[in-house]
Amino acid sequence: xxxxxxxxxxxxxxxxxxxxxxxxxxxxxxxxxxxxxxxxxxxxxxxxxxxxxxxxxxxxxxxxxxxxxxxxxxxxxxxxxxxxxxxxxxxxxxxxxxxxxxxxxxxxxxxxxxxxxxxxxxxxxxxxxxxxxxxxxxxxxxxxxxxxxxxxxxxxxxxxxxxxxxxxxxxxxxxxxxxxxxxxxxxxxxxxxxxxxxxxxxxxxxxxxxxxxxxxxxxxxxxxxxxxxxxxxxxxxxxxxxxxxxxxxxxxxxxxxxxxxxxxxx
Length: 266
Fold this sequence. Notes:
Blueprint: E1 2-6, E2 9-16, E3 19-23, H1 24-27, H2 37-41, H3 44-57, H4 63-72, H5 82-89, E4 94-97, E5 103-107, H6 108-118, H7 120-164, H8 172-191, H9 195-201, H10 215-233, H11 238-257
């Protein structure tokens, strides 16, 4: 359950089977006067829009029952609840929820039309805030994917170290030191400093050097971890691997960012 705030009105958003449903009960708080969702639902234009939307997106929609309801809409005596509408037509455009986050939720396409019923200005702000939320979610998803890729390759990397660099009967402390050294080989090749040096230069920052890497740097690190595992299996000494990895980092970052500002390790 996520929320957006539009003109000081907090609006809940729920994801149902991969689709976003917005709480129109929350949105109703922005409309002046005493109104209910049923006031909007009984409107003829509302019914026409719901019917078209359901016909396009809902193969199980009971269009015959809907036609009966639509013919009554707009009459002074007509009134129907969301629960009754859904039960009679098998609609998926609206949902009535009970409990802590209870209220009437509408598919985002429908919710935007509901916002228009409140006011054109309110609809513009709702759409803007919703798009901002989706952009932030997409950005976070892309970042998480790159971090997960780096984590997966880290396991490949450490397996190669364990098989080729750690002597038999080594202590845990020695093993940890060896892993740390190999991690710093990549840090030196990519960033020109060890993790410890970065922490000393950035005492106020949380996390580690890779948490502040760009997407391109994470992609490059992921490739380097794979290559370093191959170099380790081939028995290449650490100093040679460091120089080679640094050259690879420079080459890949030039391609990714079209820049040649990095200096080769000597």
